[in-house]
């Protein structure tokens, strides 16, 4: 009998199948584990890469910040710098020396009967005031070294030196919003006022006009963005006829200069002329100096009710000076008269001492409407008394408050001439409280009417007469440019906007 092969027991089959499943599962888990490890390794690598990258960037940032703190700024591609001079750039012509330096090189004949040479030093500020005199120390803040014997006709030289240090001066004329022409027009005409024919008086101005026409900067606006400064009054440049007996030059009647803006110590009614302050004796180096000086002039005791510094004029010229001097001398000590015909009125200490001791300072017209004395008296904290609107109110519209009653007294000239006004009575009736308010307003004007030393920068920088003039010129040029784009009549349109400020009478 044949034997059947043995049949595997059920448990053996089941056990074998179970072992096979475990093996399969193990292989699958092994593959998953390997894959998972690869993913973990990939994420860890990315993590360390990010740490290294972040560390590198932080190192770059720390290095950049360290460089910036040392004044070395590494400019980043994404950074945008703000141009603080945008719209304020000024281009200054490098004129041939015959238009400026050569004129003042021969300084003796610049003004007949007066030697200008001693006043050319210190960039046109003149000789520094000595500190050795006790009177000087009492009247001025002489130890600061900011007081100079500055001549009133040196403004063009002073302005040019300031422009050399202007923060937004550019050598790239394409960036410029305005162009400055450093021509010494005042000295050019003053050396030829006596004994020269009109051809000689006009010669250099005509040559400059020709020189300007050939420049690419001129063709941008044909001179309407150009300006220059003169240390004389505007009437000296507006001769109407070509007669040798007539006064001055015809500079401002040349077509080229008729387009330009002139800054002068006194203007006429023309719309392209603007008055800037006469130079004073004070040229501070910091705001701190200004504050100290303002405190002094507001607190100093004043001995005289009013004063007049100047010389008499013949009655035939219609001057009211004779009446002013008469009333001053008859005031029983209320008025101080410093006669410049017999006293040295070029002495800063002597002038400032009178003004510092006076509550009111009389400012009648001189050879023209305005006087340098106006600004010397304001500098001393003395309240100006005007007799003609043309002496101040219609002139220095960039510098004086519109409400003239805040800082000055106005007495019509014709009333003085008729003898119907008593200066002692009118000025004596103004109460102390109002005087105090007016003096405070006068003190506020001081920073605006001085010309600081060249090169002043930083937090101690003062917005002085120069800065105000440049800012207003830039505003004017921008307005003229806009009017040109709109096709408007520049002269008539601009005059219509300024005639109220420059009209001949205000009262």
Automatic annotation (TrEMBL):
Predominant subcellular localization, coarse grouping: Golgi
GO molecular function annotation: glycosyltransferase activity
Membrane association type: Single-pass type II membrane protein
One cellular component term from this protein's GO annotations in UniProt: Golgi membrane
Subcellular location: Golgi apparatus membrane
Presence of keyword Transmembrane helix: yes
Protein name, per record: Exostosin GT47 domain-containing protein
Originating species: Arabidopsis arenosa
Keywords attached to this entry: Glycoprotein, Glycosyltransferase, Golgi apparatus, Membrane, Signal-anchor, Transferase, Transmembrane, Transmembrane helix
Signal peptide: none
Domain of life of the source: Eukaryota
Listed Pfam families: Exostosin_GT47
Family note: Belongs to the glycosyltransferase 47 family.
Exostosin GT47 domain segment(s): 85-420
């Amino acid at each position: 009998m044949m034997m059947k092969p043995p049949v595997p027991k059920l448990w053996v089959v089941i056990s074998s199948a179970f072992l096979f499943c475990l093996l399969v599962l193990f292989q699958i888990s092994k593959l998953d584990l390997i894959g998972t490890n690869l993913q973990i390794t990939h994420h860890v690598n990315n993590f360390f890469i990010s740490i290294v990258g972040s560390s590198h960037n932080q190192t770059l940032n720390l290095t950049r910040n360290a460089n910036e703190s040392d004044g070395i700024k590494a400019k980043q591609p994404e950074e945008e710098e703000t141009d603080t001079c945008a719209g304020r750039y000024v281009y200054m012509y490098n004129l041939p020396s015959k238009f400026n330096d050569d004129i003042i090189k021969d300084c003796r004949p610049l003004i007949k009967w007066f030697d200008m040479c001693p006043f050319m030093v210190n960039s046109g500020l003149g000789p520094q005031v000595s500190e050795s005199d006790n009177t000087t120390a009492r009247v001025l803040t002489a130890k600061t070294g900011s007081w100079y014997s500055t001549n009133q006709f040196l403004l063009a030289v002073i302005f040019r030196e300031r422009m050399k240090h202007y923060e937004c001066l550019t050598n790239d004329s394409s960036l410029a919003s305005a162009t400055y022409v450093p021509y010494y027009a005042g000295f050019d005409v003053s050396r030829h006022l006596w004994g020269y024919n009109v051809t000689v008086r006009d010669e250099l101005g005509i040559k400059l006009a020709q020189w300007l026409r050939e420049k690419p900067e001129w063709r941008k606006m044909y001179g309407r963005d150009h300006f220059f400064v003169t240390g004389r009054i505007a009437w000296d440049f507006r001769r109407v006829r070509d007669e040798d007996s007539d006064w001055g030059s015809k500079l401002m009647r040349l077509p080229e200069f008729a387009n330009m803006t002139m800054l002068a110590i006194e203007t006429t009614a023309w719309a392209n002329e603007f008055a800037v302050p006469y130079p004073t004796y004070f040229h501070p180096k910091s705001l701190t100096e200004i504050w100290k000086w303002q405190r002094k002039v507001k607190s100093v005791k004043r001995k005289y009710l009013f004063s007049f510094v100047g010389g008499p004029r013949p009655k035939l010229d219609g001057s009211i000076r004779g009446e002013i001097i008469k009333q001053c001398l008859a005031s029983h000590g209320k008025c101080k008269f410093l006669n410049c015909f017999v006293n040295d009125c070029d002495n800063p200490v002597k002038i400032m001492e009178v003004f510092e001791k006076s509550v009111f300072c009389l400012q009648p017209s001189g050879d023209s409407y305005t006087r340098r004395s106006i600004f010397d008296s304001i500098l001393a904290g003395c309240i100006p008394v005007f007799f003609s609107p043309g002496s101040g109110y219609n002139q220095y519209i960039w510098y004086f408050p519109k409400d003239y009653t805040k800082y000055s007294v106005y007495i019509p000239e014709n009333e003085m001439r008729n003898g119907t006004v008593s200066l002692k009575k009118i000025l004596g009736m103004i109460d102390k409280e109002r005087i105090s308010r007016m003096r405070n307003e006068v003190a506020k004007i001081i920073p605006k009417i001085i010309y600081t030393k060249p090169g002043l920068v930083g937090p101690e920088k003062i917005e002085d007469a120069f800065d105000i003039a440049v800012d207003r010129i830039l505003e004017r040029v921008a307005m003229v440019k806009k009017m040109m784009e709109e096709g408007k009549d520049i002269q008539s349109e601009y005059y219509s906007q300024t005639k109220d400020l420059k009209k001949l009478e205000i009262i």
